[in-house]
Design goal:
The protein is α/β, with parallel strands linked by helices. It has 2 domains: about 150 residues, HUPs (Rossmann fold), CATH 3.40.50.620; about 180 residues, Argininosuccinate synthetase, chain A, domain 2 (Alpha-Beta Complex), CATH 3.90.1260.10. Helices cover about 40% and strands about 20% of the residues. The strands form 3 sheets. Strands 3-2-1-4-5 form a 5-stranded parallel β-sheet, sandwiched between helices. Helix 4 packs across helix 5, helix 7 crosses helix 8 and helix 9 runs antiparallel to helix 10. The chain is elongated, with a radius of gyration of 25 Å.
Length: about 400
Amino acid sequence: MNAKKINKIILAYSGGLDTTVILHWLKETYNAEVITFTADIGQDHDSELVKERANAIGANKVIVEDLKEEFVSNYVFPMFRANTLYEGEYLLGTSIARPLISKRMIEIAEEEGADAISHGATGKGNDQIRFELGAYALNPSIKVVAPWRTWNFVSRSDLVNYCKKNQIKIDASPDEPLYSTDENILHTSYEGEILEDPSKPAPESIWKRTTALKDAPDKEKEITIDFKQGDPISINGKDLNAAEILNALNDVAGINGIGRLDLVENRFTGMKSRGCYETPGGTILLKAHRAIESLTLDAQMSHLKDELMPKYAQLIYDGFWWSPEREALQQFINKTQEFVNGSVKLSLYKGNITIKERSSPNSLYDSKIVTFEDDDNAFNQADASGFIKINSLRLKANAKRKK
């Protein structure tokens, strides 16, 4: 990429070591204006410190935005309507955050007249793909600067030494941290270094949001979640906005040791990676959502959703949130949620979630038909004979052919 052609860059900026070095490096390498953008999507950060660091390095403008409500309402909840799991386990906490960040970077680039964006994702990971596919889907002409794919630095020590050389003040040492983290309101992930050997257990000390099972309360906790068209709208009868609901679920789940996952997954780049994840509130939400759907979706609709879900999950994981196929699938998923209304009562106890009650004004469950007692002729059991005979025709034909 020709540095002379870049005049203004929007940098996805966390305020940490990597992006602080990138900010300085971009200004030094490209002699361009650099605007930092920090999306507050529920991570543990000090916005004032972020602004202070960016200004100290010489950012031409510093933008910090609170996007928690938009993140949960427009990305997390739509994903949960599909009961989305990647490779059967991962709730996609990192993956689902990238489309929103990409969108805002492109919007800010257009507002500020920038011709490029930049990020701190490495050349081995999935995030570089997610950021860039999202950006190109929204602005095909945008330029992308990915320093980890172009500069000569190869380690955290290199970045620390760069800070010393350029008199950049940042609290970092070559020996810390012992793993990398990514955090938002939905989850926290831990990867790398001490976690790179999947034959060794993750240290208890890494977990930030969930209580160890042995330390969780010895008494069960009951909560009730109300749903409207597939989205949670209240907890224990109290109406809350989307971010408040997820925060409340995070708190109660974390206390009760719910939401940990230690996973070896297949990255889009082709390698396997071990990740440890905490998704406390999301784990409850998935269980509750499936429970309310069990009453309100008919069999074929429910099964079709389950068939399509892995593809939908793959699209999110691989960075195709803004693709036409994901948007088409979302329309189908949203349609299935039209009558997913009602309440679910759950019991939380030492990492376990138990469904205790579920009810819906749109329930398809008919106790008069399903009962083992006298159904008052609601269902003629003799009709089952013809049903079985018709469905056995092809099985009988195959059995005869084998003989």
